[in-house]
Amino acid sequence: MALLSAGQQLFAQRHIDSISIDDIVDTADVGKGSFYNHFDGKTAFAQAVYELVQGDIEFHIYSVNQDVADPAMRIARALCTVLRYAREHPDRLQSLISLSTRGTDRAARLNSGMVSDIRHGLDQHRLSGIDVGHAVLVVIGMTNMAVSHLTSETDANPTELATGMAAAMLRALGMNAEDSADVSRAAAAELLGGGEDFYTTS
Predict the structure, then answer these.
(1) Second label for 27, Cα 20 to 30 Å away, from 10, 37, 42, 153?
(2) Does domain 50-192 have CATH number 2.130.10.10?
(3) What is the pLDDT of residues 100-145, one digit of tens each?
């Protein structure tokens, strides 16, 4: 866990190519042998960091969406969840963005929930005019940009950002303007509008 925590911190600050194994073990304050007891090399380590953070986010998305059937609402709520997570764990999110080119494949196990929501949205005609592969890129790309904006702009309002970006995302996925605005407002108001935390941080 010390190594994975160090990886999250380092990947949030720098590109993987500029980080050495020595950097990782120094930050984790463990011996180099400990690193190789767990990982074959830096690529395997980066994959483990990516899967740890992405898996944690997916758990929170699952938690807020388990009783929601509408695929468009599920997509909007997922974005809101990620932005809330970014406020709570900025280093984790930045490390995920830094490593995000590893996760754009629609067949990747960690993208299965998003792909399912997109497919259902297309099947139900809530979404239209885009294929699944490009829709995955839209969702990942717009989510990453929203997170980057939220974590870099000190005056960014999470609720307003989530409302606007979720509406834009749903529009890009072929949803009409009125419905995308209504869904986005409802998701942001419930999940980012204040009150008690909707998940327990880990």
Answers:
(1) 153
(2) no
(3) 765 667 776 667 889 999 999 999 999 999 999 999 999 988 998 8
Evaluate if pTM is beyond 0.85: no
Rg (CA), the chain: 18
The per-residue b/e assignment along 167-179, b for 16 or more CB within 10 angstroms, e otherwise, is bebbbbbbbeeee
3-state class (DSSP) for residue 89:
coil
Burial class of residue 70 (count of CB atoms within 10 Å of its CB; 0-12, 13-18, 19+): middle
User: Cα(96)–Cα(177) distance, rounded to whole angstroms?
Assistant: 30
- DSSP one-letter code for 199: S
> What's the CA angle centered on 6, arms 42 and 88, to 5 degrees?
125
Domain ranges of the chain: 50-192
Q: What is the dihedral of CA 31, 35, 41, 46, to 10 degrees?
A: -120
Q: Which two tokens stand for residue 141?
A: 């790309």
Task: Give the H or E element holding residue 155.
Answer: none
- Token pair belonging to 192: 């980012």
